[in-house]
Write a structure and sequence with these properties.
Layout: E1 2-3, H1 10-28, E2 40-41, H2 52-65, E3 71-72, H3 77-90, E4 94-96, E5 113-115, H4 120-133, E6 138-143, H5 152-171, E7 175-180, H6 188-199, E8 202-206
Parallel strand pairs: 1-2, 3-4, 4-5, 6-7, 6-8
Length: about 210
């Protein structure tokens, strides 16, 4: 299950999957009948949180009507979280090539999910160690959630990363303020920087590369 608007997914890795499938069939011979059903969603839908139900509906149809026994994907956390909960109830394995959301750490909920990539909790641990080394204790985390010039996938990752950092900084007993800004307004950056300056000396930007220079 994937989305062609993303730089990763079955539309990119399909040939490698086919090669792996051939080798697997050569290895197991007639002992196992393997079929891969590809579902490619319309552009931009996989990472749109309001469309997660569409992926859930598709997964349910595949499970009940096509008798699938495992799911690979989807690649965006919002859809993977939706289907991961369903797969746990069906006791069906789901393999995620992304799954950066910290929610996937709860194996009581996502009992059958196997992540094939890092998550933002692991990334935040690195930064927490860095903060500890320099004895930094007070932070403002700034992010842009709805940048029109960015794809829904990038906006979703920006939001997930910022909120995960904010949550883990607080869990570590440090002080964190979470601020959302907009680059669509003339003073969007200036306003959020002035607000951050009131609360913290250390700022964490989660934005496109040119944002802090504006």
């Amino acid at each position: 299950m994937t989305d062609t608007s993303l730089p990763f997914g079955i539309h990119q890795s399909g040939p490698a999957v086919e090669l792996g499938l051939r080798k697997l069939k050569d290895f197991v011979g007639e002992a196992m009948d393997i079929e891969i059903i590809q579902y490619v969603s319309p552009d931009g839908m996989e990472c749109d949180p309001t469309k997660s139900g569409l992926f859930g509906k598709t997964a349910a149809e595949m499970y009940h009507l096509k008798n699938v026994t495992a799911v690979i994907g989807p690649t965006c956390s919002s859809s993977a979280e939706f289907i991961g909960r369903m797969a746990a109830e069906w006791n069906m394995p789901i393999f995620g090539s992304e799954g950066s959301s910290g929610a996937f750490e709860d194996k009581r909920v996502f009992r059958t999910l196997t992540k094939m990539a890092f998550d933002y909790n692991e990334l935040s641990v690195f930064y927490l160690n860095l903060f500890s080394h320099f004895n930094w204790t007070d932070f403002t985390v700034m992010y842009e959630e709805n940048a029109t010039r960015l794809s829904p996938a990038v906006n979703l990752h920006n939001t997930d990363l910022a909120r995960t950092f904010h949550r883990n900084i607080l869990a570590a007993g440090l002080k964190s303020t979470l601020l959302e800004f907009s680059s669509q307004t003339e003073h969007g950056y200036q306003d959020v920087l002035e607000e951050a300056n009131k609360t913290s000396r250390s700022n964490i930007y989660n934005a496109v590369h040119f944002s802090p220079r504006v």
